[in-house]
Amino acid sequence: MKPSHVFAAATFALSLAAVPALAPAPAQAIGCLSGAAAGAVAGHYAHHHAVLGAIGGCIAGHHLHKVQQQKAAAARAAAAKPSPSPSMAPSPAATPTPSPT
Question: pTM to 2 decimals?
């Protein structure tokens, strides 16, 4: 086998082994898509800056989604917290009765 074929086969095998390491992480685009769409429309009407509007809308939409998730998590935590039990109110002290003397 020619050395160039061995080198090509080794390069091919190495590239196949590197594919999982180079795969992109899953995107967290919740809120970004709707914000980007709204920002693109707004940017288009603001002197044809649709790309800048889409970028800004994506950032704003993602941030607003995170804020909504934090508020929902706080509400769930507050609902899951047990309500304090009613404390026993001290009963009024009995009035002493006069002793017969």
Answer: 0.52
Residue 36 has φ and ψ, to the nearest 5°, of: -65, -40
| Higher per-residue confidence, 85 vs 39 | 39
Helix, strand, coil shares of the chain, percent, nearest 5, are: 65, 0, 35
Q: Grade residue 32 by pLDDT with cuts at 50, 70 and 90.
A: confident
> With the CA atoms of 11, 17, 22 and 23 taken in that order, what torsion angle do they form, in degrees rounded to the nearest 10?
130
- DSSP H or E run through 64: helix 50-80
Q: Which DSSP string do the residues of 9-26 spell out, in sequence order?
A: HHHHHHHHHHHHHHSPPP
The whole-angstrom separation of Cα 82 and Cα 100 is 52
